[in-house]
Structure formats: C-alpha cells, structure tokens
C-alpha cells in the first residue's frame, strides 16, 4: 500500500493520498502515536508570521474536530476549551466537570501565586466574575492583595470586596500591621467597625 504521497503542489501526505496541507498525517490505528519525535534538542519550534489571532500557532482538537482542546493564538494567548482566549490563559468548561485543579501530591501544601511588580498600590486580585471585561458590571466579588510599601521592606494589605449593584465596593481590609477595618480602609485599632453596628450574640 502507498505510504507517502507527494502532490504536484507540494503537499505531502502520510497515510493519505489527498493531503490538504503541506504535511498531513492520517493514522487509523487506535494504539500508538501518529507522530513521535525523540530528540536531544529542544523539541518542536513553531514560528508563525501571522498577526491575526485567528491565525493559530497551535490548534488542538478532539472528537474529529468537534471539541476544542487547546489553541495558541499569534498574540500568545492560550485557550483551553476555547479558540478565542481573551487573556494569556483562559480555560472554559461547559459541562459539569471542574474547570481547573491545582495539585501538588509531592508536598504537604499546594502553593499558587498571583504575582505583580513590587510598587506602591500594585494589586494582585482573585476576581469572581460573570464576563471577560472584569469591570464592576462583571465582577460580583473580589479578594486582592495590595502593595503598600514604596521601596524598602515589602508590606501589603488584604482587601475584600462585594458588589451591591454594578459597583464593586470594599467591605473589609486587613492592614499589614494586622488591624482589621470593616467600613473603613484605615483601621487604627485591631478591629475597627464604622458606619454600622457590631453585635456579639451569645451561643
């Protein structure tokens, strides 16, 4: 049986006589890889000349092309479960499975970092949102760390926000010195509650 086909236009087919690209590999077997590369160098380099995000550097699909597994756009954005990622990494799960799981089974803890440059008022945030714009009309809750030093020793606050109606609002802040403020961003005692009541009820 014919194994390799070279068309007059330059397309090469392995396992197919009608390649639709410069190189097309068709494997009907269900065991083993269709393409296997073993190298002591860096592996595969893909260099794209396109500038449009619709010109993918990499587009992986499953189920005969009906499932979007992973896409890498020309901008460098990576999408898992989407071919149109709106950020450097966007993961979409439309079913009932977990969207993402971070696991470190070799340690007694799992460490995940959101990093920013060390500069006054820089913020690293975990936002709970319903859209991609990350505006007050999209975010319904947020926990953030805010850099409070301007050079010297690193210090930072922890800030909690909720959304009472298209307006992301700070509700509680823990200062670098441990003071906690509810209704104020500048608590001057260990627990500073303003613009409201503090009720302590017995069990």
Report on the structure:
This protein has 203 residues and is mainly beta. Helices cover 0% and strands 30% of the residues. The protein has no helices and 13 strands. It has strands spanning 4-6, 12-14, 23-25, 58-62, 67-72, 78-80, 89-91, 123-129, 139-147, 156-162, 169-174, 180-182, 191-193. The model has no long low-confidence stretch (mean pLDDT 90).
Tell me briefly what this model is.
The chain has no helices and 13 strands. The strands form 3 sheets. The chain has a 6-stranded mixed β-sheet, with no helix packed on it. A 4-stranded mixed β-sheet has the order 4-5-6-7, with no helix packed on it.
pLDDT < 50 stretches: none
Shape: elongated
Number of helices, counting only DSSP H or I runs of 4 residues or more: 0
Strand order within the widest beta sheet: 8-9-10-11-12-13
What is the straight-line distance between the termini? 82 Å
Q: Major β-sheet, in short? A: 6 strands, mixed
Overall strand count: 13
Give the arrangement of secondary structure elements.
Layout: E1 4-6, E2 12-14, E3 23-25, E4 58-62, E5 67-72, E6 78-80, E7 89-91, E8 123-129, E9 139-147, E10 156-162, E11 169-174, E12 180-182, E13 191-193
List keywords for this structure.
six-stranded mixed beta sheet, about 200 residues, mainly beta
